[in-house]
Model the fold of this input.
Amino acid sequence: MIDKQLPSVAEAVADIHDGATVMIGGFGEAGSPIELIHALIDQGAKNLTVVNNNTGSGEVGLAALIKAGRVAKMICSYPRSMNSTVFPELYRNGEIELELVPQGTLAERIRAGGAGIPAFYTATAVGTMLADGKEARQFDDKEYVMERGLKADFSLIKCRKADTYGNLIFNKTARNFAPPMAMAGAVTIVQAAEVVAPGAIDPEIVVTPGIFVERVVQVQNPAHESELVAAGVSYP
Amino acid sequence: MSQERPRIGLDRDEMAARVAQDIPDGSYVNLGIGIPERITRFVPEGRELIYHTENGLLGMGPSPEEGEGEPELINAGKRQVTAIPGASYFQHPDSFAMIRGGHLDLCVLGALQVAANGDLANWSTGGPDAIPAVGGAMDLVVGVKSVFVVTQHCTKHGDPKLVEACSYPLTGLGCVDRIYTDLAVIDVTPEGFQLVELSPGVSFDYVAERTGAPLLPIPTATAT
Done:
């Protein structure tokens, strides 16, 4: 019998180890699995490499994980945004490593990692400093750079509805990086606002098929980062 | 905008309106943050454009009414937006397949510098204290069919932003097709910067003096 549901976020993230590579879904606050991130802060794993488009805002969610000193390296495309102060300060002090990746290359690297593709060529970043040190090659008289697929030990994502097989549907622009991260994570952990029985989601509208998901935990009313930041919340 | 001295050339809304005139009906368009975002307000009557925002929405509508917004319906600038009837949501790899696969017709971006060969610098000043952040700019400039830049002609310090060669870190090589500034519309051609149109009340010499590379005048043979 397959039932991927776990009773709590704490149990869902219990085995994330020091030094793990963790992909975290979300673009800004849309799709950010705040409750899973807070559980990871409570759990204590450190020296993490985190893959996310941004670096969080305020002192909640991803920004709180970074502030707690648990993140050794960020792989992202846009590490500053409104209300983003935690990462910039650590970065200027040389206390956190940054691998800056163009957004489309980041998305494709994650997709490739999840699809068993070790590397691919893209025209993005050709002739820029983000192509430095990367293998270049011409196809049809056009220049490309080679980029590597990205995999993770764990992926933490958020969705609107999951069934206990791990089939997922998302909410509007919160989908963003979650489907490729579900593919690229060896262990993909999902927080879902609603968990239903298999068959309750029309197979025609499943976005992420359950084979890409290992664990599902229900978080009925997930917090929104902007509301926590506006309220001055600092986690823990 | 405060009017401390008489303005020469177009203001930000007039620049956005000028770009809007040149976007064909039925185009799929990605607009950058800043002046490009204002273009939606000036699309001529009778034209339908579909707006793409790279975080995963095709068919982006205007900002929501006060109190009607949703934290998980946002644009690439992380501001709350709406979705038009007929919109679609999708994951990031699909969104960037639209960009990198050459499916979008046009993007309009801001710039720090544009070189006479079409090189663009718009993501980093390269300063020692700057936090580098690139987002989707490098993807847009290589993948979208036409790349327009809308920018002030000069920096706040009066330095030209249209230059012989970019001194800031590059976003892409030879990628800019056309530049709209407060002073002029200029095409990037194999011969360099080609003037297309002067803003009302602006002379060729005034623009040429403020351009950091040779500016080719509108050929007299085709002038009417």
